[in-house]
Amino acid sequence: MAVAFTREDIEISTRAADHFTRLYYTTYDSPTRVEDLPKFYRPTSTLTWNGNPCQGSEGVKKLIQDMPSTRHEVQSYDCHPISVFVSGSVSHGKVPATKLTSSRSVDDQPRVFFQTFVLVPDPVAPLAKVGEIAKYYIDADAMRFVG
C-alpha cells in the first residue's frame, strides 16, 4: 500500500531537513563534536561510515574521537517525510599555513560525500508547537565518499 504525502507533509519535512542539516554539520565541524554529535543518535541507531558500521551514540563517539577536524560544505539536500539525502564536500584536518603543502597530505583536501539519514520523531522531546520543527533523532545514517 503506497503512502500519499500531502503538500503540508512535504513542507514540514523540508523545514525539518533544513534545520537538521544546518545543525548537524555545524555540530560535526565544531570543537565539541566528540561530546555533541553523539546526541543526534540513540543506542539503537546505526551508522555506516564509508562502509564501516557503528552502533549507537557510543559507536559514533568512538568513530569521531580520533578523526581530524572537519569542514563540511553542504551543496544540496533533498528530503522526504522519512529521509534526508545530503551531498557536499568535507575537508579533514587543519587548514595549511601555506598553499605549498604536499598534495599527499589529507589536511584541507576536500572530498565529495553523499549521506543519507533516516530521522524519526524523538518520543522524549517536548511536543513541538504549531509552526515549530519537531525534534528528531537519527535512526539510520549512511555516509560514503564519492570523490
Automatic annotation (TrEMBL):
GO terms (BP aspect): mRNA transport; nucleocytoplasmic transport; protein transport
PANTHER family cross-referenced by the UniProt entry: NUCLEAR TRANSPORT FACTOR 2
GO cellular component assignments: cytoplasm; nucleus
Superkingdom of the organism of origin: Eukaryota
UniProt-listed CDD domains: NTF2 (cd00780)
InterPro entries named in the record: NTF2, NTF2-like_dom_sf, NTF2_dom, Nuclear_transport_factor_2_euk
Entry keywords, A to Z: Cytoplasm, Nucleus, Protein transport, Transport
Subcellular location per the Swiss-Prot or TrEMBL entry: Cytoplasm; Nucleus
This protein's name: NTF2-related export protein
Signal peptide extent: none
Source species taxonomy: Eukaryota, Fungi, Dikarya, Basidiomycota, Agaricomycotina
